[in-house]
Amino acid sequence: MLLRQQLRRLTVLTGRHTVRYSTISTQGTVSSSRPINVTPIFTPPVKNTTQQENPKPTQQLEIENPLVHLERARSLFANEHGLFDKIDVISRTLRNPDTPIRVGLIGSSPSLLNTILADPFASDQSWHQALTERSTELTNIIKFSPAFESSNNEYNIPSPFLKSLGKTLEFVELSSKDTAGNDGCHIYISFQANTPFSLSKWPVYQVSDIATEDVHDIVLSKSEISSQVAYQAVKLLTESPKNATIYTDIYTRSNMTQFTKLLNKITNLENVIPRLYTSILKNLSEQNQTHSLTLDELNSRDAKVKKYISNWDQASHSEFQNVFKPYVVEYEKRELPWWKLYSRVDDIQGIFAHTLNLGLLNDSFKNYSYVKGQIDSFTSFQTGNVLDFDDLKKLEQKNELSTLKRMVIQNDLVTLQNKAGKLLMTNFLGIQLPLLLLSIPGFVIYDFSLYSMAGLASLGAVVGFNNVSKNWLKLVDQFKQDLFEKVRLALLDVNKSLYDDWSAKYEEEKEMIMKRMRLIEALKNDLGM
């Protein structure tokens, strides 16, 4: 209803109304011709006669401006079949009543526009000659202009037909490749059997243009025209006004007069806007049915993702207890026993870092990437796009386990290596070296026996090695306990973050589903459906 009210206001402002007119401004209208029978491909819905004249919007319909509802569709739906272009078209037209009505011609013969845009009595036919020489392989745009201009397949011509109907018309001859719907057209007229799928989503009228130049024996049905025959008539009238009688006869039999009457009818603002608005609504409804999940489907997805997270939690703790812990203990005993400490003290960080890189919950990392990818790539509006593999790899670097591994390698292992170096240095300088230094003068100066002094030096070495062994085991055990506790807490944090991320995603997508449903209802309300 709001849209109809706005259209009435626009009609008053522009003074647009249905006009009886001739095909060419200087040509007579033949009232005896049969009306052409045209089948619209897109049919607007029939209004429910039992509906109240002024239905009250529901509480969700807070915004009364139809343009606001249309603009909101951009953030909720996909730009399929030129949808956003059509929103721009209808927005421009409603905001500016003088916006030209653009008609897209699908599979039209060049003779169609050559005919209806001609001005046989004009003294200057150069613009029309240039128009007839246009390429048919590319998309051509034809607009009105007081003076002729052309560039890049856009023709601005002084054809009176474009301004003689109480409105301004523009035509777009669409090439076979230009079928995406991003052409600024309000409506389309198709002259071929199969209309391109994207264009069929919008108001399309089907007309049959018979390709023949037989001006004498042509017989057309109500649903047919022959622009080639009509163009022959136009050329006769251009040659001489004396050919007016034969022109009228040929032109009448081509059904072009009735075609231009039809064109006037279907390009009236009162027809164009509701049909285009309704087709936008239909496209949004189809997208909602095709791409958008229902609330039940969202709840089903909710249960599935929570099951993924629960399974990951169980599997990661199992891997932690049964794989990671034994692996670290075995690797440490094999690669860094106390007696290897003397030769590897400067490489403790690298050795343990290698351990963590090889064995820190590898399966849990992979499964995390999968679950996180399921969450981050999930959308209630599914158009076939999936999370890129590179994005999944990046996820592995953005969780508590990855952060823990980096912190352990960069901080804890450096601390452990420094403590090991300090242990060796303190042990050597405080125990082993002093006893060694005592044994040498004891033997050389004080005449202690070699055996006793060797025993003293050996005692220093044994005590030192024992001290290194005992303290190194303490350091490593403490490091492992801290590491295992940090991993356990990190697993809990990851599990919580997965639940939190999914909860936020679920609420976000639930709101998006509701917004799409409310928007479609708002658009229906605007149409008075």
Molecular structure report:
The chain is an alpha/beta fold and 529 residues long. The chain has 2 domains: 2-23 and 78-291, no CATH class; 295-527, no CATH class. Helices cover 59% and strands 7% of the residues. The chain has 17 helices and 10 strands. Strands 1-8-7-2-6-3-5-4 form an 8-stranded mixed sheet. Strands 9-10 form a two-stranded parallel ribbon. It is elongated. It comes from Cyberlindnera fabianii.
In short:
Helix content is 59%, strand content 7%.
Query: Which class do the helix and strand fractions yield?
Result: alpha/beta
> Which residues sit in consecutive blocks of at least 5 with pLDDT less than 50?
15-34, 41-64, 386-390
Strand content: 5-15%
Mean pLDDT: 79
Number of beta-strand segments? 10
- The figure for the number of domains is 2
The tally of helices reads: 17
Order of helices and strands: HEHHEHHEEEEEHEEEHHHHHHHHHHH
Distance between the termini: 8 Å
Overall 3D shape = elongated
How do the strands of the widest beta sheet line up side by side? Answer: 1-8-7-2-6-3-5-4
* C-alpha-based Rg, rounded: 42 Å
- What is the helix content? 55-70%
Question: Main sheet?
Answer: 8 strands, mixed
